[in-house]
Write a structure and sequence with these properties.
Distance between the termini: 27 Å
Number of helices: 2
Helix content: 10-25%
Radius of gyration: 19 Å
Number of strands: 10
Strand content: over 45%
Shape: globular
Order of helices and strands: HEHEEEEEEEEE
Strand order of the largest sheet: 1-2-3-5-6-7-8-10
Length: about 180
C-alpha cells in the first residue's frame, strides 16, 4: 500500500508541476547499442537556467560482442562532459563542451589474429546539435581529442597489426528524454 501511495504521489506531483523547466536528460546511443552491443546510459543535469550542462556516461559491452569491421571489441567507458548551450538545454540548440573519459578495451582482429588490451584516459572537445520535440530529444554530435595515456591501470598490450592511437574521433547519435 505504501508503494502504491508513493507512486500515485509522484505521478500527481509530476503532472501538476509542468511549469518547471526541464533540467534533466536521460539518453542512449542506439548506434553503440545495436551495432556493437554496447549498453550505454547518459544522464545530464542542467545549471544556470539551462545554459550549462554536466553529463555522465556509463557504457559497457554485453556478454556477447559483435563483429565491427574485422574486430571484436569488449569495452567499458565512463565519462563526464561539461556542455555550454547557445539556447537552453531544454530547447533546440547547438552545444559544445569538453569531455574526460576512462575507457577499458579488449580488441581482437579476427582476420590477422591481432590483439590489444588498452586502458586509456582521454580528453576531447565535442560539438553537437539537439532537436527537442516535447519531452523527446535527438542529439547528433562529433568530437576530436587525444589519448593522454593508454596504460592507465597497467601496461597496454598490442600484438599483430594493432597499434597505439593518440587521436580520438567521436561521431554519434543520442536519443532520450528531457524531464
Amino acid at each position: 500500500m505504501k508503494k502504491i501511495t508513493l507512486i500515485l504521489l509522484c505521478a500527481v506531483i509530476s503532472l501538476t508541476t509542468f511549469s518547471q523547466e526541464k533540467m534533466n536528460k536521460l539518453s542512449v546511443n542506439p548506434i553503440q547499442l545495436f551495432a556493437s552491443n554496447i549498453t550505454n546510459f547518459e544522464y545530464e543535469r542542467g545549471f544556470a537556467d539551462g545554459k550549462f550542462g554536466l553529463s555522465f556516461l556509463y557504457a559497457r559491452t554485453g556478454l556477447s560482442t559483435r563483429k565491427v569491421l574485422d574486430n571484436k571489441i569488449s569495452m567499458s567507458e565512463q565519462s563526464a562532459t561539461a556542455k555550454y548551450y547557445h539556447a537552453k538545454m531544454y530547447q533546440r540548440s547547438l552545444w559544445y563542451g569538453a569531455e574526460l573519459a576512462v575507457i577499458n578495451q579488449s580488441i581482437y582482429n579476427i582476420d590477422s589474429d591481432s590483439r590489444a588490451l588498452v586502458e586509456a584516459f582521454g580528453i576531447s572537445g565535442k560539438v553537437g546539435y539537439q532537436y527537442i520535440y516535447k519531452s523527446l530529444y535527438l542529439d547528433v554530435y562529433g568530437g576530436l581529442g587525444i589519448s593522454v595515456t593508454d596504460n592507465l591501470f597497467g601496461n597496454a598490450y598490442y600484438t599483430g597489426n594493432l597499434s597505439k592511437s593518440i587521436l580520438l574521433l567521436q561521431l554519434g547519435l543520442k536519443i532520450g528524454i528531457v524531464f
